[in-house]
Amino acid sequence: MSRQNPKVGFVSLGCPKALVDSERILTQLRVEGYEIVPTYDDADVVVVNTCGFIDAAVEESLDAIGEALAENGKVIVTGCLGAKADVIRQAHPGVLSISGPQDYASVMTAVHTQLPPKHDPFLDLVPPQGLKLTPKHYAYLKISEGCNHRCSFCIIPSMRGDLVSRPVDQVLQEAEKLVKGGVKELLVISQDTSAYGVDLKYAEREWRGKPYRTRMTELCQGLAELGVWTRLHYVYPYPHVDEVVPLMAEGKLLPYLDIPFQHASPRILKLMKRPGAVDKVLARVKKWRAICPELTIRSTFIVGFPGETEQEFEELLDFLREAQLDRVGAFAYSPVDGAKANDLPDPVPDDIKEERLERFMEVQAEISGMRLGDKIGKRIKVLVDHVDADGAVARSAADAPEIDGVVHVENGQKLRPGQFAEVEVFTADQHDLFARLPG
């Protein structure tokens, strides 16, 4: 007897936090017996998980919704842009439903309305760790939603709300399931990882018979028990960040910190509503590296923020040269609808913003090239992501997937994705390392 499952197409846009939202929705769909299909033609309805952080992301999301409507006709919209339902309705009045980020119940209700589920518990088997959109060997572990900061260039709190932390035992249980399912690297994400647990007053919970506080340091201590790579993203430089660097030195966490500094001028940081003690930041970076010499620090910056003078931009370049950050991303300031920074005086002309961005990246490329060059001749541990006839593409402890560089292993054809290997670096450029398997 044949059994026709209702079929759902899915489009996932945006950052890793949105990707985790997509994974949760997809897992629930499969639990309820829906089949996830890869084409518009095969789908009975399409879910689009949108991004709405910057204007380019809004346009991408609206284009994706329009394409789904044109190709399928039945579209459910969720995600960050869903917080601006009027924008979506104005562009695409024919969508079936609109909901904001993390509103999984509304998505499922909309799907149920269009396609009642036909669940068969004997056939619709979902792995205990849920469905993942990342490769099997790494996964994003979201520890909280929302943010308590009110950075003037950012509208995330208006979309995702204030900080809501997940209890530490729930996070550790999820991490344990992921590892049992084959994950070799956990990427800890949130809007503000350092603030984890402050809303819960660092409540204590039990995992594996031991007490853990709902706090970043204790969470990291628990994750270290799982014996896989653990990488921290979106870490604000609060004082207690100092507590996790010794864990990195001891090999319990990857020696990697993703800290969005955004700028180095105290006045510009104040306009951004960001912490502004640049001298203290430099001193702490030196202290961290003294404790853990292998530490990789990545960051993001905004150039051409409203009111930024040439002198303040030079302060930013001086900071780069002093801090010697390993990995850096930068953006020319772009107004975001609803952001307070739009009201600031003295906007920087577009041509100057682009010229400053180019100068910034030239300085950082030189720094990155030198720091990668220091690894030539050394043996390093890598995690393999991809293998083909040309060799393997892997990542070291210094490389987060999709945002940092990679390690090209020229004789790695016999390696497997998800496998750890020791390689010897023989050259480098400004972004990547090139290595061989020893012997």
Automatic annotation (TrEMBL):
Domain Radical SAM core: start-end pairs: 133-371
Cross-referenced PROSITE patterns: MTTASE_N, MTTASE_RADICAL, RADICAL_SAM, TRAM
SUPFAM superfamilies named in the record: Radical SAM enzymes
Listed cofactors: [4Fe-4S] cluster
Record-given protein name: Ribosomal protein uS12 methylthiotransferase RimO
Leader peptide range in chain numbering: none
Coiled coil spans: none
Catalysis performed (reactions): L-aspartate(89)-[ribosomal protein uS12]-hydrogen + (sulfur carrier)-SH + AH2 + 2 S-adenosyl-L-methionine = 3-methylsulfanyl-L-aspartate(89)-[ribosomal protein uS12]-hydrogen + (sulfur carrier)-H + 5'-deoxyadenosine + L-methionine + A + S-adenosyl-L-homocysteine + 2 H(+)
Top-level EC class as recorded in UniProt: transferase
Known function: Catalyzes the methylthiolation of an aspartic acid residue of ribosomal protein uS12.
UniProt binding sites for [4Fe-4S] cluster 2: 147, 151, 154
Family the UniProt entry places it in: Belongs to the methylthiotransferase family. RimO subfamily.
GO terms for cellular component: cytosol; ribosome
Biological processes annotated in GO: tRNA modification
A Pfam match: UPF0004
Keywords from the UniProt entry: 4Fe-4S, Cytoplasm, Iron, Iron-sulfur, Metal-binding, Ribonucleoprotein, Ribosomal protein, S-adenosyl-L-methionine, Transferase
Domain MTTase N-terminal as annotated: residue spans: 6-116
Domain (TRAM) ranges: 373-439
Sites where the protein binds [4Fe-4S] cluster 1: 15, 51, 80
GO molecular function, one term: protein methylthiotransferase activity
